Every structure is written in structure tokens, then in C-alpha cells.
């Protein structure tokens, strides 16, 4: 059990600008939550917003697995993972493992901007507060 909800933010290179712009647009909401990100994504968000992020390793170097481990420990309540569906990733098995763990632990995961917009509004409306129980 934890006292605030935690959000993981991850984006592949071709989606990083989109995620940074998303974080700028929703900075006031995101600032109320614990924020985790893979290495390069976290650096970009911190450079371009005032958000404080727990940065993990870069995705290809194990960052997705670290997020997965946090999910197992029930420390992540929402994942926003803007994947690049058009570019092969060397660490594809890690990406699949992260998505699989979201399904194992029923953690909401948005893999594109449209679903991210819906989830962030749901978060702001308290629709994920059941995870605090
Ligand atoms: O590769 C990633 C997710 O699979 C993201 O890693 P970075 O944030 O370090 O670029």
C-alpha cells in the first residue's frame, strides 16, 4: 500500500517529443503524483518541465525491466508508454515483458497518445483511487 499513486512515463525515440508535449500539457496533474521514467525519457521530461522524476536506466539497458520490477512490487499504478510501432527495438523482449506484467497485475497502460489522454483525465478524476486501498 502507498499514499500517492505513481505513474511510469516511457517513450521510444520517435515518440519522445509527443510525450514531452503531453507532460507539458498535463504538468499540473502529473505534478501531484509520483513519477518514474526510463533514463532518456526522464531526462527529456525533466529538462523541459518542472516535474520531478525518479529516473531509471535507459530502456535498452534494462529500464523497462526496472519498471516491470516496480509493477511487481505494486509501486506503479499507471503506465504511459508511447511505443514506436514502426521501428524494431533491440530490447523488444523487455518491452513485451513490461506489457505482460501490466496485464498480470491489472495496471492500466496507455501505448498511444489517445489512450494516454483518457487515462490522465481518469487519474485526475480519481478513477484510479481504488489502487490506494
Ligand atoms: O527504450 C525505451 C522503452 O522501451 C525507453 O528508454 P529511454 O527512455 O532510455 O529512451
TrEMBL record:
It is an enzyme of class 4 (lyase). Residues 1-133 form the MGS-like domain. GO terms for cellular component: cytosol. Its EC number is 4.2.3.3. Gene3D superfamilies: Methylglyoxal synthase-like domain. The active site is at 64 (proton donor/acceptor). PROSITE patterns: METHYLGLYOXAL_SYNTH (PS01335), MGS (PS51855). Keywords: Lyase. InterPro entries: Methylgl_synth (IPR004363), Methylglyoxal_synth_AS (IPR018148), MGS-like_dom (IPR011607), MGS-like_dom_sf (IPR036914). GO terms for molecular function: methylglyoxal synthase activity. Substrate binds at residues 12, 16, 38-41, 58-59, 91. It catalyses: dihydroxyacetone phosphate = methylglyoxal + phosphate. The keyword Lyase applies. GO terms for biological process: methylglyoxal biosynthetic process. The keyword Lyase applies. Catalyzes the formation of methylglyoxal from dihydroxyacetone phosphate. Belongs to the methylglyoxal synthase family. This is Methylglyoxal synthase.
Amino acid at each position: 500500500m502507498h499514499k500517492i499513486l505513481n505513474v511510469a512515463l516511457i517513450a521510444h525515440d520517435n515518440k519522445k517529443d509527443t510525450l514531452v508535449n503531453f507532460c507539458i500539457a498535463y504538468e499540473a496533474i502529473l505534478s501531484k503524483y509520483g513519477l518514474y521514467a526510463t533514463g532518456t525519457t526522464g531526462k527529456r521530461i525533466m529538462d523541459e518541465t518542472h516535474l520531478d522524476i525518479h529516473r531509471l536506466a535507459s530502456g535498452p539497458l534494462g529500464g523497462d525491466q526496472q519498471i516491470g520490477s516496480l509493477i511487481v512490487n505494486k509501486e506503479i499504478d499507471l503506465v504511459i508508454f508511447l511505443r514506436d510501432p514502426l521501428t524494431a527495438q533491440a530490447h523488444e523482449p523487455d518491452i513485451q515483458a513490461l506489457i505482460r506484467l501490466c496485464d498480470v497485475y491489472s495496471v492500466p497502460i496507455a501505448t498511444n497518445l489517445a489512450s494516454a489522454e483518457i487515462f490522465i483525465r481518469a487519474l485526475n478524476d480519481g478513477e484510479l483511487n481504488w489502487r490506494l486501498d
